Structures are given as structure tokens and as C-alpha cells.
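Please check the following for our workbook:

***
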Amino acid sequence: MPCYSIEGVIPVVDPAAYVHPTAVLIGDVIVGPDCYVGPAACLRGDFGRIVLERGANVQDTCVVHGFPGHATVVGENGHIGHGAVLHSCTVERDALVGMNAVVMDEAVVGEQSIVAACAFVRAGMQIPPRTLVAGLPAKVVRDLTQEEMAWKRAGTETYHDLAKRSLKSLREVSPLAQIEENRPSLAAPFVEPLIAAKRA
């Protein structure tokens, strides 16, 4: 992975974490055990510290940055969806930030909360635990159901599993010219989109 020190401060990655080779880590970045950092994610700890606590995932093309002297923290089992931007904020334990959402300075995403895809969480917003927020700017929509919190947890567990699968078997290869006979299936655990789960 591209990993850079600045002013002698070197990123820290726990051996039980998986960071994709195309992700970029700069400076004061701490990636805890069982974390997953996806392709083309950028964790820029050249101003403030960035911390991913145990089991957090930061998916592909996410950007994590912050102001000098302000940490950006993703708590234990925090789940940051594709393309999200975090800046000098805190995402507490078991919370989810949806795809392409933005969470601004000094905002706090409460435990087990969900920030909807494409939401804009304004600076300083305090999101209560176990709530859904959505919109531009984001507003509290309602409390989450037990089913929604369980779905989020299952999704995060698939990323715990993906970190292990990636450490074990993800390798750079040349593509095949054609589909082989008896092409194998992936061993990923089954999780369906929340909309499909609600339909059932």
C-alpha cells in the first residue's frame, strides 16, 4: 500500500487489519485490528490524527481528513460506505455512514445510528444513538428498528470476514482471456440489501 510518513510520523496498521494496496495512508493514521480499508481510500493524517478502532471498515474511494489538532475517529465496528467523506468528526461504535455521504467538522454520529446515502451532516451536528438521518442538510428522520440495527451489524460482519479473506487470498493477477469451465463462486457470507429484507 502507498504509506507515507510526514515529519517522522508513520501510519500504524495492526497485522490483523487489511488495507488494500491502492489505499493511501499518510502520517498520523492508526488502523486497529480486524479493520478493512478498501481500494483507493485516502486516509490523510497530515493535519489531525485518524483512528479506525477495532472492526471498523472504510470502503473504496472514501476520504478521511481533518483540521490540525482535531482527530477523526471511526469507532469500533463503524461502517463507512463507498465514496463517503469524513472530516474532523466522530463516528461512534456500530454506526454506519452511507455511500457518498459527507460528515463535517465536530459532528458526532451516535452509536448504532445510520447516516443515509448522499446525506450531508453539517459541522457540529450531534446525531442521537440508534437514529436514521437523511437529507441535505441531514435531519433526524426517526428511530431505527431492531431489524435495521441487526442488518447493519450483519453487513459489518461481512467486512470483518472480507478483511480475513483478503489477508488470506487477495493477490494481484493478470486477467483471463475467457471464462473458464466450472468457474468457482466466492465464499462471501450472504447478506441482502435492506430493501429486499423488508420485502421478505
In short: Residues 146-169 form the longest helix (24 residues).
